């Protein structure tokens, strides 16, 4: 197990709207952050993204289930995210599983998240969610 990735996961899991200065310890100034819904360049933009995330969502918790450094300065984190958002599923708790690929030197300079965007958003939006669940059932 990578000591760097373990420390990163612990710091990341402790993030909240009140300690976003921690991002400066985790990420380089030139961070590239990507997920299925966003592409963010630079630490100021990443900080703004997380500020908005923590302002709009509640009870955000990450649990890391697997940590793997595949070569020096590169590795993966498997995680489960639990959160509440007032506009998704009537504010009920949602659970999302995903994986993050990280590259780092002293701090992370590339962060790519992989997760099912439909499971995150589309299935929990009225009308659209029902249609997607119906379609998934037909394809199964």
Output the keywords.
NTF2-like_dom_sf, alpha+beta, single chain, six-stranded mixed beta sheet, 5 helices, 6 strands, 140 residues
Question: What does this protein look like?
Answer:
- By secondary structure, the protein is α+β, with helices and mostly antiparallel strands.
- The chain has a single domain (3-139), classed as Nuclear Transport Factor 2, Chain: A (Roll).
- The chain is 32% helix and 41% strand.
- The protein has helices at residues 3-13, 23-26, 43-56, 117-120, 128-139; strands at residues 27-35, 38-41, 58-71, 74-84, 94-104, 108-115.
- The protein has a 6-stranded mixed sheet.
- A hairpin with a 2-residue loop joins strand 1 and strand 2.
- It is globular.
Largest sheet, strands/sense/barrel = 6 strands, mixed
Gross CATH architecture: Roll
CATH domain topology: Nuclear Transport Factor 2, Chain: A
Provide the number of structural domains. Answer: 1
Write down how many β-strands occur, each being a DSSP E stretch of 2 or more residues.
6
Please state how the strands of the largest beta sheet are arranged side by side: 2-1-6-5-4-3
* Uncertain regions spanning at least 5 consecutive residues: none
Distance between the termini: 37 Å
Please give the count of helices.
5
Bin the helical content. 25-40%
Shape: globular
Protein name: Transcriptional regulator
InterPro entries: NTF2-like_dom_sf, SnoaL-like
Pfam families: SnoaL_2 (PF12680)
Domain SnoaL-like: 11-105
């Amino acid at each position: 197990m990578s000591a760097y990735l373990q420390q990163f996961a612990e710091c990341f899991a402790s993030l909240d709207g009140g300690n976003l200065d921690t991002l400066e310890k985790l990420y380089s100034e030139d961070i590239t952050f990507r997920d299925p819904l966003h592409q963010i360049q630079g630490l100021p933009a990443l900080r703004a993204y997380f500020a908005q995330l923590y302002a709009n969502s509640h009870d955000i918790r990450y649990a890391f289930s697997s940590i793997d450094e595949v070569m020096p300065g590169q590795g993966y984190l498997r995680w489960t995210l639990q959160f509440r958002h007032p506009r998704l599923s009537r504010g009920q708790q949602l659970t999302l599983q995903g994986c993050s690929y990280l590259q780092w030197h002293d701090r992370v300079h590339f962060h790519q998240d992989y997760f099912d965007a439909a499971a995150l958003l589309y299935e929990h939006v009225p009308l659209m969610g029902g249609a997607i669940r119906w379609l998934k059932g037909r394809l199964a």
